[in-house]
Design goal:
About 85% of the residues lie in helices and about 0% in strands. The protein is mostly helical and about 325 residues long. It has 2 domains: about 1-120, no CATH class; about 135-330, Growth Hormone, Chain: A. It starts with a helix and ends with a helix.
Length: about 325
């Protein structure tokens, strides 16, 4: 099972970090962490989609993403406190060892494979198999391709936010406490908001959710260039988090709705490839532009790219929401 394999790759990570002698050790640990994330986290996404069926995919994805980001926040707080009290190494990494052991044990002894749910759903699915899963998911299929490009752009502006927001705020004279509040609001609203936006994706049109979410992010990023006061940044950071919350669980639910059960896992994996590449592309692109031109220029460019992504969703997607599909099937 991929989740078990993912946790096996995680076994050396805390020990490497405890005994690291140079930066190369840290790089190796991050590579292993990426493999763990790709296998274990992807498995949670695919298996939850398999289990809940089409009625509550959005809510399941919202709950899954909320749990992940909430856990990151809790562990970050705990490790920071432990480090301040007992030192950077080795004590904070004992939490990592405990979580690695629990993740592996739960995957081996408690989690059951969902292939039987997939087989049952396959008999009822009206979706055709994809001819070329990679290219169809990347761009060729109108719905899947629209989601993939939006995922990449969403994480591109997210990578920019993590890197440039503190620098932008510092340059405008905000103190560390104010910078911490503004930068924390964005992921807080994003994480908690998914408890609500995931369910909204099950009720409202997913195309509308994606378009409005990306459009809201684009508007916020463009306006952000002219923001000056603490109130401006608090409101804009919160709105950016809400826009991200609108699209994040909806991305995965939309991929699931537009793929055959046998293609779903591969298609979600390809989508996550492009989505998460956005972090790296965003960090490099905005860093270069900020150095060559200005931070404001980098933010404005990302805002324009996000707007283009929203327009692609509006124009290219040919997507009917679940209620419309069910009504059509009932009438037939």
């Amino acid at each position: 099972m991929p989740s078990v394999l993912g946790w096996i790759f995680a076994i050396p990570i805390p020990f490497i970090l405890i005994y690291a002698e140079n930066w190369n050790w840290i790089i190796v640990a991050n590579v292993l962490l990426g493999i763990n994330q790709g296998l274990a986290w992807s498995s949670t996404v695919v298996m939850k989609i398999d289990l809940v069926g089409e009625k509550e995919r959005g809510f399941a994805m919202g709950l899954n993403e909320f749990a992940g980001y909430f856990a990151v926040a809790v562990v970050a707080f705990l490790t920071g406190w432990i480090a301040s009290e007992y030192g950077v190494r080795p004590y904070p990494f004992y939490i990592g060892i405990a979580l690695m052991v629990l993740g592996l044990l739960f995957s081996i002894f408690f989690i059951k494979d969902t292939r039987h749910h997939v087989a049952k759903e396959e008999g009822k699915s009206g979706m055709s198999r994809l001819k070329n899963i990679f290219w169809d998911t990347t761009w060729k299929d109108k719905n899947l391709g629209s989601v993939s490009q939006a995922g990449l752009i969403n994480n591109l502006n997210d990578g920019m936010a993590w890197g440039l927001f503190p620098i932008l705020l510092s340059g405008k004279g905000f103190n560390l406490e104010q910078i911490g509040i503004v930068t924390a609001l964005y992921p807080a609203v994003w994480g908690i908001g998914q408890l609500f936006t995931g369910k909204m994706a099950d009720i409202f049109s997913k195309k509308d959710m994606l378009f409005i979410g990306m459009l809201l992010q684009a508007i916020v990023l463009v306006i952000l260039v002219w923001a000056e006061t603490m109130t401006h940044f608090v409101v804009l950071s919160s709105l950016l988090g809400w826009g991200t919350a609108m699209v994040y669980p909806t991305f995965l639910a939309t991929i699931a709705d537009n793929t055959h059960p046998q293609d779903r896992a591969k298609s979600i994996g390809i989508f996550r490839l492009w989505r998460d590449l956005g972090y790296a592309i965003g960090a490099v692109l905005t860093g270069v532009i900020a150095d060559l031109v200005s931070i404001e220029a980098a933010i404005m460019l990302i805002g324009i790219l996000t707007l283009i992504s929203a327009v692609i969703i509006l124009v290219r997607m040919d997507y009917k929401d679940n209620k419309a599909l069910k009504l059509l099937k009932f009438n037939e």
